[in-house]
User: Fold this.
Amino acid sequence: MKSPLLFLIVLLIPPALAADRTGNRQRAESADMAFHGTLIEVPPCVVNDGRQVVVDFGDEVMTTRIDGSRYKQRIEFTVDCSVEFSSLQKMRIEGSAAGFDPTVLSGNHAGFGIALYHNDTRYTPGDWLAFNGADLPVLYAAPVKQDGSTLSGGAFSVLASLVVDYQ
Assistant:
């Protein structure tokens, strides 16, 4: 019968008088805690006014002159954020890599793709590019072909996604 009574006595000792593992009595204090903040939705940013970004190389891209630079075109796009949230932003272009070069976006013809450039430097799709507010990275696209391949004529297309991330 002593065990249950002793057990009840231990439970009834206030925490302020409880002993630590060495048997020393310690005085414990407590305070209430409160956590608060404000949840916000993702800032409303619009890439290219909600329209598809199109790079038109025209109707006269000669298969024998494709070299990764000859038909280079600037990729024109906009990023508009109606709320100023941060100057720290980043973007990337995602798409399927060509089998002959992982830095080239795959096209709808074997041995053909689109190379991307950030300013004058070859850009690897999927890599993040940091930018600040309205100072967008300058990007270019150029048709490329696999070394030693012979391309047939006809319309070509390459699909990719431009992803903007903001903090």
Notes: The radius of gyration is 31 Å. DSSP finds one helix and eleven strands in the chain. The helical segments are 2-12.
